[in-house]
């Protein structure tokens, strides 16, 4: 959650310093949140923990000897006003495409300059149409630690 707050702070500072070269400003068009964040994003980092199983890819894609050995995508598809469906896939050499999240329905709510992403009423990430920060953690029914976090760029 601290990463989200840092991202929001940095985004706010950058937006405040942005120079406006438009001599004829037009009022902002109201944007439907789901349409603003919909699209395909490339993972730039990925972290997954399920008990003793852990996958941490601090920087994606992973390239070895000029060949991509690990990459991933997040696809947000507009379902309705205010809702998208999220699909997250990792592509690992020798393993193929691994679906991590399939058809997760996410509510998109405007939250200042970014959009909050919610599942079952809980905030699971933020998006601004060009960048996604996602972070969910908890405990399984057997008491194992669960974590899924990633960053992705359009």
Please, could you describe this protein's structure?
With 154 residues, this protein is mainly beta. The protein has one domain (33-153): Lipocalin (Beta Barrel). It is built from two helices and ten strands. Strands 1-4-5-6-7-8-9-10 form an eight-stranded antiparallel beta barrel. Strand 8 and strand 9 (131-139) form a beta hairpin. The chain is globular and about 45 Å long. The two termini are 22 Å apart. This is Lipocalin-like domain-containing protein. It comes from Larkinella punicea.
Topology, please?
Elements: H1 2-17, H2 33-37, E1 39-50, E2 53-57, E3 62-64, E4 67-80, E5 83-92, E6 96-111, E7 114-119, E8 122-127, E9 131-139, E10 145-153
Antiparallel strand pairs: 1-2, 1-4, 1-10, 3-4, 4-5, 5-6, 6-7, 7-8, 8-9, 9-10
Number of helices: 2
How are the strands ordered across the major sheet? 1-4-5-6-7-8-9-10
Alpha-carbon Rg, integer = 17 Å
Order of H and E elements: HHEEEEEEEEEE
Strands, total number: 10
Helical amount among residues, as a percent range?
A: 10-25%
The figure for the number of domains is 1
- What is the name of the CATH topology? Lipocalin
What's the overall geometry? globular
CATH class: Mainly Beta
Largest sheet: 8 strands, antiparallel, barrel
Which stretches are poorly predicted, pLDDT < 50 over at least 5 residues?
1-19, 23-27
**Strand residues, percent:** over 45%
Protein name: Lipocalin-like domain-containing protein
Organism: Larkinella punicea
């Amino acid at each position: 959650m601290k990463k989200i707050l840092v991202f929001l702070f940095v985004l706010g500072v950058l937006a405040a310093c942005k120079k406006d070269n438009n001599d004829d400003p037009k009022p902002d068009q109201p944007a439907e949140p789901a349409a603003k964040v919909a699209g395909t994003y490339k993972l730039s980092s990925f972290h997954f923990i399920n008990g003793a199983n852990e996958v941490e890819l601090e920087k994606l894609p992973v390239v070895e000897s000029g060949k991509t050995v690990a990459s991933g995508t997040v696809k947000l598809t507009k379902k309705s006003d205010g809702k998208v469906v999220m699909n997250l896939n990792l592509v690992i050499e020798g393993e193929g495409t691994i679906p991590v999240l399939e058809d997760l329905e996410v509510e998109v709510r405007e939250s200042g300059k970014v959009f909050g992403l919610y599942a079952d009423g809980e905030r699971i990430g933020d998006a601004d149409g060009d960048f996604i920060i996602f972070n969910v953690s908890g405990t399984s029914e057997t008491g194992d630690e669960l974590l899924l976090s990633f960053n992705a760029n359009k």
